[in-house]
Amino acid sequence: MLQIRENVSLKNFNTFGVEANARFFVEINHEDELTELFLDPKWLQLPRLVLGGGSNMLFTQDFKGLVIRMNIRGIEHRINHEEVYVEAGAGESWKELVDYCVSHNFAGMENLTLIPGSVGASPVQNIGAYGVELKDVFESCQAFEIATQQKKTFIKEACGFGYRESIFKGELKNQFIITSVKFKLSLQPKVNTKYGAIEDELHKQEILNPTIGAISKVVAHIRVSKLPDPSTIGNAGSFFQNPVISFGEFEEIKNKFPEIVHYPAGDNKIKLAAGWLIEQCGWKGKIVGETGTWKNQALVLVNHGCASGSEIYALSSQIIDSVYNKFGVKLHREVNIL
Question: Within 10 A of 278 (CB to CB), how many other CB atoms are there?
């Protein structure tokens, strides 16, 4: 029997650690419980928020509807010649999934190690790091359609993946709840070391022929050196997307700032490093009241103690304005704002 609680604090369910309350709160441990939940039309009429690890969320107010926390667990795999299909429940920790794949020598996810959050949230955001995106390893996902209470399979081509985008974040937003995700990996590793920081660290450690385990350890080392641990200080990882601009726009900026950090983004586009832009505006390590930016990575906003979501949001607005005034580039928040 489902337990629906009232007036539940969400402080322990978001990695920023900001205080907010949910009018109603339910935890889903099996996909059949979603059918049970929506048999009551009351929950179809109220606002809903699906919550995984809470690692990509900033609460600026209480939620006056129903928070659905996905806690469906389980990881299993099937090997077909050199291909491996790994399926995980939406409530699984992303870190645990990557560790599982690396420990079994299933190649493809090693660059995505230590990304906070849950498996179910990964397709929504098309998460990515160090030269790899979720779409590169995504096979399909199972999702529950709220309006019909039917299960549906989404293959990669149907998901509309883009840079930190998907159909679940766009036209199908709030219509489906992802219950599990299937990934296509390989027993024949083709390690991706093209991201500069990985190459530098491999060189420092004198690793000439890296395994997927070595790549995972190197990426973990880089992330830990740059990013704060949410269990120690509240944060949601990278707060802003790296802006993608046209080659012409880039040339104009480069004329003024020759040292600007950038990467090719295909289709005559250039991706800029948002952290570098923010740092150049003097924000790195800056403390504003109870919030601020992380001392080792300006892209990360942190909660130094009792900051409210509104305070953190206000800081992000100041940063957006200062970067635009200096570079003419508009930053966009990667974190979901409520």
Answer: 26
Domains and CATH numbers, the chain: 4-70 (3.30.43.10), 75-186 (3.30.465.10), 234-337 (3.90.78.10)
> Does the active-site annotation cover 55?
no
Q: Could you read off the pLDDT of 257-296 as tens digits, one per residue?
A: 999 999 888 888 999 999 999 999 999 999 999 999 999 9
SS3 209: coil
Contact of 283 with 274, CB cutoff 8 Å: no
53 vs 96: CA distance, rounded Å: 13
Catalytic residue among 164, 166, 180, 308: 164
For the question of residue 223 being annotated catalytic, the response is: no
What is the pTM (predicted TM-score) of this model?
0.84
Q: Judge whether 85 and 183 are in contact, CB under 8 Å.
A: yes
Catalytic residue among 55, 118, 166, 238: 238
Q: What is the pLDDT of residues 230-267, one digit of tens each?
A: 878 999 988 999 999 999 899 999 999 999 999 888 88
Q: Which residues pair with 118 in a beta bridge?
A: 93
Structure-block tokens of residue 78: 């099937």
Banded pLDDT at 131 (limits 50, 70, 90) = confident
Residue 243: closest CA among 323, 307, 174: 323
Among the listed residues 31, 133, 201, 334, the single catalytic one is 334
Active site residue 252: no
Query: Cβ(19)–Cβ(42) under 8 Å?
Result: no
Q: What is the Cα–Cα distance from 257 to 332, expressed in whole angstroms?
A: 21
